Structures are given as structure tokens and as C-alpha cells.
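Worked example 3 (structure in, sequence out).
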């Protein structure tokens, strides 16, 4: 159990989120729920089941899938007994359909509200949404707003300045020395079967490299830049300086420009998932994505239980 932060791009963001809510937490009449006939799949499972010979197919179906029975002419009660599906018998008591109700891409439990992370332009308005899905108009910062209302240019500047600061300090600390990435070091140690002891040994060798040692030991910079940032901006800067694991260090092997460009708004705002117009995006180029959005596109930072 935990939480996730999701960027939702486009109108009707609650409906978009509904495409990815787990079936057991969705409203039983949600339009995102689909009924899938799994009769063929059930027959294959029945054939392979060890105790299949001990029961009839209808009895096995009711026990295995835990769904209620319908007879010819009866309609399913989605709000109660047939919320998760049903098995239908003909006049002879034979199974001729088994329907499972599902949201195939569901991955979170429920919506807990929006996070007021969008910094709005002077005079612009956005909205915040509560757990009870109550909408309220807000200024300053908002959880949901049109692209044109958000200080996106300023937010990208913060990312670039924070990432650039991190890279500059790291290179100054190690004297621009190079080092082997952890994955290369780990290749020397890893065996067919994973071993914690070998992993620790590889990590120790990686950390003893002069450049890595220097970066791990470098002090945090002064607080001048930090004092100029809002809370969410300071959080991002802190995350950059706290990423002392091998992934956070090894990415510094990139050139300054590539290192900066490896960071996006998700690092500043904390979202790890992007949904656009009801579709889950896989590793999009965020700079290109945001550049291609119309000014009236609604952008929402949703917080969900997962």
C-alpha cells in the first residue's frame, strides 16, 4: 500500500483516471468497466485443474471464479451480486457464458485529491479538488489549471538551474575525473544466482573510485539559491542532493547539457505516471510533449492511493 502522483493531461481528468482504477474500488456502474467473456479460458483451466474430476464444470466454475449464477432471461445486478461477473446456465444447467467484469489497465485504488504544485501566473486561476471530489477555485498555486495559466517557463528554469548546480558541484569535487558506472563494476561480480554479499562487494569497489568518493563526500552548496525557491522548488533541489545511490551518481557521467536534459517536470513535481486523453504514456519526451500542447490544455496533478 502506498501513494502515487499522476500527471493527467486533458479535460475530464477524473474520467481519465477512471480508466486506470482497480476494479474492486471503482463504482460498480463505472463506464470504464468492461465485461469479458472468459468461457474458453475457463474451459482450458478446468481441463488442467487437478480436482476437476471431482466436480462438474458448473460447480467448479462457481467455486473457482466465485461469481453468481444467472439463468436464461435473467439480467445481471451490477451493483450487488454480479459486480465482478457472472456465470450463465442454460435450461439444462450447462454453462454457456462466463463474464468477468474488469478494468484491464487498473493500477491504483482511489483518488485522494489534487496536489497544488502548479505555480500560476499573476492573476491566473486554477482549481483544487478534494478527496470528496469537491472543486474550488484558487490562485497562486493549483492542482489543476490550463497550460496558459501556469508558469511553465519558470518551472523549466528551476529544473535547469538545480540540475546544473548539481553537475557543477560534482565536477568541481571530482576534478572532472571519470569513473566506471556501477553496472560495469557489477558485471565483474554477478553470478548466475544473485548474492547480497557479491552486490555489497561490487558497490564497495564502485564507491572507492576516487571520483565517486569525492562526489559522495562533497558538502551541500550554500543556501543562496535555496532561499530564492518556493517549497516545491526546494524539494527538487533536495532530492538531487540526496540521490547518493549509484544511479544518482552515475548519471553525472553525462555531459552537462545531457545531464540537465535528463530531468523533467516529474522530478520537480514528483509525478511518476503520465496520462493523456485517457492513454497511459510510456517514457515520453516531456519537453516535446509540453511544447506540443495547446495553451488551453488542462494539466492536473492527481494524488492517488495505490
Amino acid at each position: 500500500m502506498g501513494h502515487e502522483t499522476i500527471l493527467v493531461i486533458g479535460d475530464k481528468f477524473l474520467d481519465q483516471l477512471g480508466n486506470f482504477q482497480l476494479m474492486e474500488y471503482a463504482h460498480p456502474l463505472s463506464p470504464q468497466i468492461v465485461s469479458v467473456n472468459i468461457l474458453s479460458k475457463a474451459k482450458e483451466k478446468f481441463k488442467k485443474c487437478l480436482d476437476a474430476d471431482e466436480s462438474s464444470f458448473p460447480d467448479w466454475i462457481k467455486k473457482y471464479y466465485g461469481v453468481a449464477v444467472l439463468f436464461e432471461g435473467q439480467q445481471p445486478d451490477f451493483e450487488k451480486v454480479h459486480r465482478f461477473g457472472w456465470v450463465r446456465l442454460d435450461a439444462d444447467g450447462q454453462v454457456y457464458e462466463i463474464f468477468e467484469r474488469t478494468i484491464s489497465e487498473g493500477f491504483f485504488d482511489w483518488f485522494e485529491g489534487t496536489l497544488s504544485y502548479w505555480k500560476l501566473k499573476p492573476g491566473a486561476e486554477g482549481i483544487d479538488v478534494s478527496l470528496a471530489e469537491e472543486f474550488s477555485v484558487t490562485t497562486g498555486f493549483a492542482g489543476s489549471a490550463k497550460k496558459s495559466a501556469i508558469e511553465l517557463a519558470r518551472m523549466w528554469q528551476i529544473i535547469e538551474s538545480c540540475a546544473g548546480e548539481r553537475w557543477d558541484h560534482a565536477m568541481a569535487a571530482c576534478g572532472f575525473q571519470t569513473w566506471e558506472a556501477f553496472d560495469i563494476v557489477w558485471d565483474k561480480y554477478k553470478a548466475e544466482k544473485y548474492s547480497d554479499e557479491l552486490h555489497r562487494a561490487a558497490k564497495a569497489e564502485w564507491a572507492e573510485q576516487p571520483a565517486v568518493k569525492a562526489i559522495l563526500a562533497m558538502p551541500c552548496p550554500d543556501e543562496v539559491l535555496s532561499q530564492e525557491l518556493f517549497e516545491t522548488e526546494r524539494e527538487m533541489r533536495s532530492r538531487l542532493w540526496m540521490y547518493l545511490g549509484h544511479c544518482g551518481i552515475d548519471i553525472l557521467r553525462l555531459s552537462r547539457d545531457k545531464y540537465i536534459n535528463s530531468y523533467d517536470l516529474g522530478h520537480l513535481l514528483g509525478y511518476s505516471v503520465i496520462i493523456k486523453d485517457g492513454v497511459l504514456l510510456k517514457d515520453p519526451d516531456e519537453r516535446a510533449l509540453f511544447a506540443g500542447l495547446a495553451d488551453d490544455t488542462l494539466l492536473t496533478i492527481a494524488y492517488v492511493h495505490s
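Notes: The chain has a mean pLDDT of 90. The radius of gyration is 26 Å.
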